[in-house]
Amino acid sequence: MIWQAERQVSDPVNMLSTAIVSPFLALFYILVIRKCIHAFFLPTPLKLPNYLVWIAYFLFQVYVGMGEPLSPVITLLLNMFFVFLVTSSAHSESLRKCSIFSFLICAIWMLVEIIVHMILYMLKFDDSSGLSGNIISKILMLVFAIITGNCLQQRSITDISFRYMAILFIVPAGSIYIMHNIFVISNQSSDELLFSFISGILLLFINYVIFEVFESLAQNTDYQKKTLLYEQQLDLCNQQAKEREVQDAELRMLRHDIKQHLICLLGMVNANKNEEAVHYLTALLENGTSRKIHEISRSGNIVVDSLVNYKCSVAQKEHIEFNANIFIPPVLPFQNGNLTIILGNLLENALNACRHIQNGKRMIGIQMTYQKEILSIVVWNTLEDSSKDSPSKHVMGMLSIEQAVATYNGEVITETEGNIFKAAVILYEGGET
Question: Helices marked H in 322-386 — which ranges?
Answer without folding.
Answer: 336-355
